[in-house]
Each structure stands twice: as structure tokens, then as C-alpha cells.
Amino acid sequence: MSTATNHIGRKISRIRELRDMKQDALAQALGTNQQAISAMENSETIDEAKLIEVAKALGVTPEAIKNFSDEAAINFFNNFYDHSFTNSQGTFSATQCTFNPLDKLMEVVEENKKLYERLLQSEKEKIAYLEKLIK
């Protein structure tokens, strides 16, 4: 179902469904009944004050309801999924890398090279000391 139209009632219905909320729960949050929610979701327009109340009950902004589209929601979740991974402890986001991994790899290579050179120098000194003791 595409919500490319400006049918506010359908947009409210889709957001409510995405939030896994029944009409009864939204009705209770708004202090009304399920039939009123059904009628609201079937209406093409809604007054601004009521839209603000509905948005608050759904946990979104009025602009989110006005600008909602299924395509945008699908894109959001696809992008979220693409930048996340799941392990046994849950889902972790790994979206913003603040360093270049290749630069870090080269730093480690250089550090290992320096450590190897120091180790080699230490071994040379040990050999020279042992040779001196033998003579």
C-alpha cells in the first residue's frame, strides 16, 4: 500500500500499525473510542490540534505523520539494516568509522617493525656480551 497521497488518516493508520498499536490502544491514549479512531483513519484530513495529539500518542512528530510514506520507511529500515550487524548479545550499529582502517593497519605494521628492530638489537648485544665473556 503506497502512501504517496496526502491522506492523513491512512498515514496515521500505517504509523500505528508499524508501532504495533491497535486502534483500541490509540483510542485509550487519546481518551476516545475505537470507532472514532477508525473514522479518523478513514478521513483524508484532520485538524492540526488533533494531529498534534495523535502524533504525541504515537510517539512521532506531526511532521512525521504529514511526510510519512511507505517507501521512506522501507528505505530507512533497509539503510539501518545495511549498517548493522547482529551477534548473540544483540544488534550493534557500526555506521560511522572515524578513522581509515588501512592507516591503522600501517601504523601497527610500523610499530611491529620497530619492535622487531629493538629485539634484534637486543639479541646482538647479548651475543656480543656472551662472546666477550667467552674470551
From TrEMBL:
It holds the Pfam family HTH_3. SUPFAM superfamilies: lambda repressor-like DNA-binding domains (SSF47413). This is XRE family transcriptional regulator. It comes from the Bacteria. InterPro entries: Cro/C1-type_HTH (IPR001387), Lambda_DNA-bd_dom_sf (IPR010982). GO terms for molecular function: DNA binding. Residues 12-65 form the HTH cro/C1-type domain.
